[in-house]
Amino acid sequence: MNIKMNPPNQNNGLEALHFDNRFTQELPADPEPENYRREVTGALYSQLEPTKVSQPTLIAYSREMAETLGLTPENCTSEIFLNTFSGNQLLPDMNPYATCYGGHQFGNWAGQLGDGRAINLGEVLKKKERWALQLKGAGPTPYSRSADGLAVLRSSIREFLCSEAMFHLGVPTTRALSLITTGEMVLRDMFYDGHPKKEPGAIVCRVAPSFTRFGHFQILSARGETTLLKQFMDYTLRTDFPHLGKPSKESYLAWFREVSRLTTTMVVHWMRVGFVHGVMNTDNMSILGLTIDYGPYGWLENYDPNWTPNTTDAQGRRYRFSHQAQIAQWNLLQLAYAIYPLIEEKEKLEGILNDFSEDYESQWQNMMAQKLGLGQFETETDKTLIAELLSILQVTETDMTLFYRNLANLDVKGKTSNDITNDSLIAPLLEAYYTPQNLTDAHKAQIGNWIRQYLVRLKNKGLTNETRRKKMNAVNPLYVFRNYLAQLAIEKAETGDHAMVNDLLDVLRKPYDMQTGKESYAEKRPDWARTRAGCSMLSCSS
Description:
By secondary structure, the chain is α+β, with helices and mostly antiparallel strands. The protein has helices at residues 22-26, 63-69, 73-76, 79-84, 153-169, 214-222, 226-240, 249-273, 324-343, 346-371, 380-392, 400-407, 422-426, 441-461, 465-473, 483-493, 499-507; strands at residues 45-47, 57-61, 97-99, 102-105, 108-112, 118-126, 129-136, 175-188, 197-208, 275-276, 298-299.
């Protein structure tokens, strides 16, 4: 028998993962080696290892993210994969750490926050792209404060599926590689109402080019650590924004302008698909304009501009759907304060901040014109048409996703005459209304008049029904990760049935395409889910 020994740095099936630990090599570490809760100053991160778990089980993995990293299906179903991404084993060259950052939470400065339940494994280089791998729920860190650093299956399913759903929707987002249960039970008080219970523990491997947040700069500036702030800014430019040139005041300003632009684009995409982040604290804002930290988020099912999915925000509704752009600008203002010591040019920073509103409005108008099949936003007529549309969406409870999909089915030919009844005009849209029987004649007249104006505008554009329908269905999804679908998948998974998690993962890969046999995943929220826990509002508990 020929016996061969694996070389010491053999990954045993995960050789495609080549780690480059630039973050830990170039930035100062916390000198304290012990893992206990504390204030960490003069450093960007603390080194530590994930907490080992008793019985890891793979629930699902993203084949697209795996392929991007160079992993095969065989890799992703191997024991080494399971042990690595549950935190039970480190691959050669991994250098795990948790980062230090601060942030404003609900408008108030919270001081040091940091990776309280996330542990970075390192950065993988693949085809000249850099991917940071991070385990969420892998145990306590120095930044865990009073928490245990763990995550439960409930929140992990929501993060895993929504990360990948957003990617396939074309929304800038962090990604997810794997979802693994730990075999441990974790105590959580889901609604902070004094009724904690034990829930299955889980770990998600999150993936992004960078997990750097606004809060990384804020904590350094707030502590007056200007030398370290400059070092981190220069590192960020070299690593994530090399196209902006060498570090200087000019490149810092160009960086801030690009972060603003990326943030604008991200929020416009949220508005396009009806996503509400729910907790837009500055520590949850990515410098790359990626949706990050899928906590108490939600999907706008019935169109309500004031809806927020976060129970903590139920009173003030700071992070409601219609307010997300204003909050993004406020968060950028806090980032401007943080980097001001490096630039000291107030007017230039203010100019970039003031440009945000105009840039956002322009992108938002073009996005809305595309949702209506009009192409680029062109005229005051379009502005009026869009404003009136947002009004009729609130006439009665209207499913946003289904409204736009069914709007694409309107027939432009011969349908603008006042001889056409309102009932006939509205008929293709009825599926989108939660209580169509409650539409009064006045409601029907308002909706019918808007449809007539819309059809006139379409005729003026000269688009065929087929061309318009194709354009609209390319930006208006049929399948989104509805709140009640998430809850159903969670409830089944908590009994050990993971089929719906994987079925949803598959359906959400093609959110714009009609999928035979999957029609139930495109249905509007059922009445039982209107006020059910997990379907209407959520807390930050995970």
